[in-house]
Design brief:
Blueprint lengths: L9 H15 L4 H8 L3 H8 L7 H10 L4 H12 L15
Helix pairs in contact: 1-5, 2-4
Length: 95
């Protein structure tokens, strides 16, 4: 069963995906800030899910990362994929 606390809101998911993309390019926040023109504090807030991102800001970040929206969405989707939980029912339903 999925609990409400197991589900991260979209800004948190996007933040985790942005951080993963940045780290995959071996960039520090300072470097990404310089390349994208987005402030370090803003990048940090976005990566931590503390701020709802504007599409224009996401676009600038993705351009600096030489990535695209598809990569970001794929990263969020991959993060949301969880292995199926085994059936732990105590009842044998084979009839």
């Amino acid at each position: 069963m999925t609990l409400l606390t197991d589900v991260h809101p979209l800004p948190v998911q996007l933040g985790h995906a942005l951080r993963a993309l940045r780290l995959s390019k071996n960039l520090k926040l300072e470097e990404l800030s310089r390349l994208s023109g987005v402030g370090i504090a803003t990048l940090s807030h976005l990566e931590n899910g503390n701020r709802d991102p504007k599409l224009s800001t996401i676009t600038r970040i993705l351009q600096a990362l030489r990535s695209d929206l598809y990569d970001l969405v794929a990263s969020v989707s991959a993060h949301n994929q969880r292995p199926a939980q085994p059936d732990t029912s105590p009842y044998d339903l084979d009839l």
